[in-house]
Design brief:
Blueprint lengths: L1 H12 L27 H4 L1 E8 L8 E6 L4 E8 L6 E11 L3 E4 L8 E6 L5 E5 L6 E5 L6 H13 L10
Antiparallel strand pairs: 1-2, 1-8, 2-3, 3-4, 4-5, 5-6, 6-7, 7-8
Keywords: Signal
Protein name: Lipocalin family protein
Organism: Rhodobacter capsulatus (strain ATCC BAA-309 / NBRC 16581 / SB1003)
Length: about 170
């Protein structure tokens, strides 16, 4: 399975950087959206795996969020914000409180909001106000069922269509 994902990512990279096709929103824009009030950027930094995503074949994909200590993350791994997995690269700069970020290249150029993270930074729910995508990330080996359920509840509260976000 990993070979298939990476082969697809390499093929995508060879396409000359064409923008992917638009993805139908998975969030009701009439619902207010919130971000994590007590977000600690340094604690969020590190390695994550995708536990849930609306992008097929993204379950288990790895992402690295390296905090630079000055207001931005260096991103690498697999981007699960489009219709298909893509190469995750670039930076995401903090733009406001509660884990609100602006990526330079990744995540289809959409703002990224950390909607929720548990107190030990093991599971996080991320999304974008436009509703273009959402993802649940887990630290490798730390995804507990109760925390994953809590992340799903947060996505639901923020207007995301849970029937389109799988693991």
């Amino acid at each position: 399975m990993r070979r298939v994902i990476w082969a697809g990512l390499l093929a995508l990279a060879a396409c000359g950087g064409k923008a992917p096709a638009p993805v139908a929103p998975i969030r009701d824009p009439q619902v207010m959206i919130t971000s994590a009030a007590l977000f600690d950027p340094a604690r969020f930094g590190g390695d994550w795996q995708v536990a849930m995503s609306a992008t097929p074949r993204c379950g288990g994909a790895k992402q690295s969020w390296r905090w630079d200590g000055r207001g931005a993350y260096a991103l690498s791994g697999v981007d699960c914000a489009g219709a298909v997995p893509a190469v995750l690269q670039g930076q995401a700069a903090l733009t406001g409180p509660g884990g609100r970020m602006a990526p330079d290249k990744a995540y289809r150029g959409e703002p990224v909001w950390v909607l929720w993270v548990d107190q030990d930074y093991r599971v996080a729910a991320l999304g974008t106000p436009s509703g273009a995508w959402a993802v649940v990330l887990v630290r490798p080996g730390k995804g507990r069922g109760d925390l994953l359920a809590a992340a799903r509840e947060v996505l639901d509260f923020n207007g995301y269509d849970l029937s389109r976000i799988g693991g």
